[in-house]
Each structure stands twice: as C-alpha cells, then as structure tokens.
C-alpha cells in the first residue's frame, strides 16, 4: 500500500489560538505514518465573512487548492471553517464548469481542474488510516475519560462525503477505539456553539456555549472532544465567561490531543499546557 | 411595480437570482425550527424567505436576521426544497454592505475581517478586535482584555501580523480586485416574475 500523503492547510487559527491542534495533528499523523506537506504561502480562506461573496470565498480557497492539485495531492484542513470553505470550493469547481471558469479567471496565474479533494483529519483517520489500525496502535487506553464528542457545525454541514449531518458518529467511534467511554451527546453533538457571533452578539453566543457544557454534564461527561478552533475559542477560553457562578467547568480537548495521548506520544508534544480550562484533574484520573 | 428598482444593477441581478431560488419555498418552517438563533431574529428564516418571495428585498436587507445567522447550515441540510438558506443569507449580507445599508455589528466585523485578509493574506486577531471595538462598543475591548492576556501568556495570540510574501500578497489583492470588478459588472438579468409586474 502506498503511504498516505496529503497537502496540509493549517489555516490562520492553527498558527495562533489553536496551536495545540496543529501540533497534535502533526504528531498524530506522523506517528501513524501519514505525510503532511504544508501548502507553501497558503492564505486565509476568508472564513465566515467570505460567505457574503461566493466567488471571493471560492477564489481565496481556490488559491490554496491549486497548490495541492498541481502536485496531485488531496488537502487536509483541520479547522472546520477552513474545511467547509475549501471543501465547498472543491465541490463547486468539480461539479460546475461555469464556476470553474469564473474561479480560474479570478485566480489568474494558477488554476483548478476540479480534481482536488478536501478532507477533515477526522475523515483521514477514520476512513483512510482506519479504526482497526488506530486501535491496534493504542498503548495507553483512555479508560476513565467520559467524553462528549462535539462535532460542531461545519465538519458535516452543509455537505461532506463521510458522515451524517444530523448524527455523525466518526468521532464517537474514534474515541471508543481509544478506550474512552463515549457519552450519548446527540443532538447537542452538532448544535452550534455560537462562535460566529462572539464579537457581534456576545451574550447570545455565550448562552449557546453554556448550554453545550450543561448538556454534556447532564449526559455524564467529564470532558469534551473538539474538532474546530472556533468551537474551542468558545468552549475553552470563553467557557468561564459563558458559565454562571458555581457552574462546573468541563475540560475540553482537541480530538487529536486525545488520540496522541492514547498512542503514547509525549503529552508535552500535544500542547495540554495550552488549555485554559485545566485538564489536570481529569487527566490524572486516567492511568 | 418592479421591486428590484432602487438597487444597483449588480445588486438587482443578485436579488433576481435569489428570488428565483426561493420561489420554490413552501413555507414549511423547517428552517425556522432548526435555527439556533431564530428567537433573536426579527424575521425567522421562514419569514425571511417569504419576504424574498414577495419581492420585499429592502425589508430583508434591513433585517436583523441576516446578521444573526451563525452559518451553522442546519436550515440548509434540512430544507425539503433544497434551498441554500444559509448561503442566501450570506449573499444578502454582501448586498447590504455593497448597497450601503446602515452598519450593524456583524457588518463591522465582516468588513474588518476581510480588510485584514486583503492586507496580510492571513488573519491577525488583535487588529480585528481593535478595529471592531473602535467602531462598535469601544469599552468592549476592556471586557475582552482578561481573556486576551490569558491567550497572550499561552502564546496563543501573535503580537505581529504574519504577512504572506510579496508575490502572494499581490495575488490576494488581485483576487479581491477581480472579484469586485466582476460583482459590479454582473448583468441585470430580467426575471419573468418581475417582468410581469413591471
């Protein structure tokens, strides 16, 4: 079997607020023998504001995709927002010759044929590497962790090719393969954290985040697995402001940090010290 | 009366396309029932679709609804008519900005965000925060300070922007310019529905 190899699009958050997501993705992929080639000179995908002009979103995303396509590689994008924009662009350029022509006209010196595919790391791990392979490599089962798997909005919506938009299960299966107890977190697992409104409508956004924490506690979780830097912004640094006095905080992790831990990667390499809600207690209960 | 009147040709053309897409909406309300922020909207997504069907574009563009959307796409994946509700709200945000509607908090955010992408090729959060708060609730920056400091301590905020190399930046600028030129050049396509009312 050919070794797995992808173009890697970190996106802006993974260089700053979500740097432990970047570190843990790279460490886990490396441990599993999956090669990631960072896209040279990648640019911001435009995130949510680019939704105001579809062509702008396609072109900003497309410039990154063109690098990968020229090298015959598919793209891995860990940030849900970037994943959504890049994947939407790849799908539109592939499906619609008129969109492809327009995007290429705007891009000018690079172009897309539509061959490139975009994957979230969750898809690569569960489908391309495979749960069996990951289970086989677990050296430190996560027994004692009761995880609420939180997918957020944009991994499965509006459309991807690997999991249900209503009740996705890839992260549930993955966490179970690591030996963790997975709590039933439907339907909150895909309910919006409000992150897009953090600046413009803070009170509403924090209320949406608080609800997710309360529901996770009610389902018996002692931690939460995340896959998006914006969800993380809400559920880690802004969890304190979201909760009311006396309400219990819930440690949250990027799902790749948890995989790294289970694979026996040195926790210092996985950025646990970067978490704002202290994970010390829940991690101590592990061993 | 032609409801598209009063807009620039580019906006009128975009609104025509939106009107065409929402013409199949049967007002089932699945979008409104799925929307996590519908209670904070003046028009639910269903009501907004109705405004668009009725050609009440100005009301739709003035609505709080388009700026309360978190782009969670719950409405879109559940719409039995396959209307891309989330994307339509996004397009309406773009039209509201281009047509000079009164600046909302969300509009300030979008403008500041895309301005930074255009300048550096990448996001630079501290500038986004400052630009946002200078126009909307300047005192909010004080409230954001404790978390900002915590993130700075953990090395999660960069004090300086990371710019693309000059060649990349030039490409990004060309993309913004080409997209804007195309938006303005969009031909006004007459739509049968509105020709009747003309």
Task: Report on this structure.
- The complex is a heterodimer of chains A (287) and B (198).
- With 287 residues, chain A is of the alpha/beta class.
- Chain A is built from 11 helices and 8 strands.
- In chain A, the strands form 2 sheets. Chain A has a 4-stranded parallel β-sheet with strand order 2-1-3-4, sandwiched between helices.
- In chain B, α1 runs antiparallel to α7 and α8 runs antiparallel to α9.
- The longest helix of chain B is centred in the last third of the chain and has 20 residues.
- Chain B is mainly α and 198 residues long.
- The C terminus of chain B is likely disordered.
- Chains A and B meet through α2, α4 and α7 of A and α6, α7, α8, α9 and α10 of B.
Describe how the helices and strands are arranged:
The complex is a heterodimer of chains A (287) and B (198).
Chain A: E1 5-8, H1 19-31, E2 35-38, H2 54-70, E3 75-76, H3 80-95, H4 97-107, E4 118-119, H5 121-137, E5 146-149, H6 170-177, E6 181-182, H7 202-218, E7 223-226, H8 229-235, H9 239-242, E8 252-254, H10 255-262, H11 280-284
Parallel strand pairs in A: 1-2, 1-3, 3-4, 5-6, 5-7, 7-8
Helix pairs in contact in A: 1-10, 2-3, 2-4, 3-4, 5-6
Chain B: H1 9-22, H2 30-34, H3 45-53, H4 57-62, H5 65-68, H6 74-78, H7 85-98, H8 105-120, H9 125-135, H10 140-153, H11 166-185, H12 192-197
Helix pairs in contact in B: 1-3, 1-7, 8-9, 8-11
């Amino acid at each position: 079997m050919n070794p797995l190899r992808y173009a890697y699009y970190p996106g802006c958050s993974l260089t700053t607020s979500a740097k432990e997501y970047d570190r843990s993705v790279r460490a886990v992929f490396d441990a599993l023998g999956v090669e990631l080639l960072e896209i040279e000179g990648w640019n911001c995908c435009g995130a949510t504001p680019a939704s105001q002009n579809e062509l702008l979103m396609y072109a900003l995303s497309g410039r990154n995709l063109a690098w990968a396509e020229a090298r015959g590689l598919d793209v891995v994008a860990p940030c849900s927002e970037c994943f959504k924009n890049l994947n939407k662009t790849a799908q539109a350029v592939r499906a619609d010759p008129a969109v492809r022509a327009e995007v290429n006209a705007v891009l000018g010196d690079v172009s897309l044929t539509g061959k490139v595919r975009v994957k979230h790391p969750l898809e690569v791990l569960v489908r391309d590497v495979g749960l069996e392979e990951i289970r086989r490599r677990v050296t430190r089962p996560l027994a004692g962790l009761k995880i609420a798997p939180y997918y957020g909005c944009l991994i499965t919506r509006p459309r991807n090719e690997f999991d249900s938009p209503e009740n996705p299960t890839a992260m549930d299966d993955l966490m179970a393969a690591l030996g963790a107890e997975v709590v039933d977190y439907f339907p909150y697992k895909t309910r919006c954290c409000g992150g897009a409104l953090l600046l413009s409508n803070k009170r509403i956004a924090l209320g949406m985040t608080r609800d997710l924490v309360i529901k996770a506690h009610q389902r018996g979780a002692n931690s939460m697995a995340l896959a998006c830097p914006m969800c993380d912004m809400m559920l880690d640094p802004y969890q304190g402001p979201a909760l009311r006095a006396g309400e219990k905080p819930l440690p949250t992790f990027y799902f790749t940090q948890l995989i790294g831990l289970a694979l026996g990667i040195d926790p210092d390499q996985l950025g646990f010290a970067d978490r704002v809600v202290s994970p010390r207690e829940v991690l101590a209960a592990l061993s | 009366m032609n409801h598209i009147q009063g807009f620039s040709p580019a906006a009128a053309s975009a609104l025509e396309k939106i009107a065409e897409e929402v013409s199949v909406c049967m007002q089932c309300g699945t979008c409104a029932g799925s929307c996590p922020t519908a209670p904070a909207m003046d028009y639910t997504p269903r009501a907004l679709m109705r405004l668009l069907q009725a050609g009440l574009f100005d009301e739709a563009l003035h609505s709080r609804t388009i700026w309360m959307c978190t782009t969670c796409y719950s409405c879109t994946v559940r719409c039995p008519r396959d209307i891309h509700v989330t994307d339509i709200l996004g397009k309406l945000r773009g039209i509201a900005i281009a047509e000079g509607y009164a600046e909302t908090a969300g509009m300030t955010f979008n403008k500041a965000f895309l301005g930074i992408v255009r300048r550096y090729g990448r996001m630079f959060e501290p500038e986004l925060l400052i630009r946002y708060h200078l126009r909307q609730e300047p005192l909010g920056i004080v409230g954001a300070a404790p978390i900002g400091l915590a993130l700075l301590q953990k090395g999660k905020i960069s004090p300086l922007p990371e710019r693309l190399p000059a060649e990349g930046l030039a490409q990004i600028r060309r993309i913004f310019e080409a997209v804007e030129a195309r938006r303005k050049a969009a031909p006004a396509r007459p739509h049968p529905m509105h020709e009747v009312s003309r």
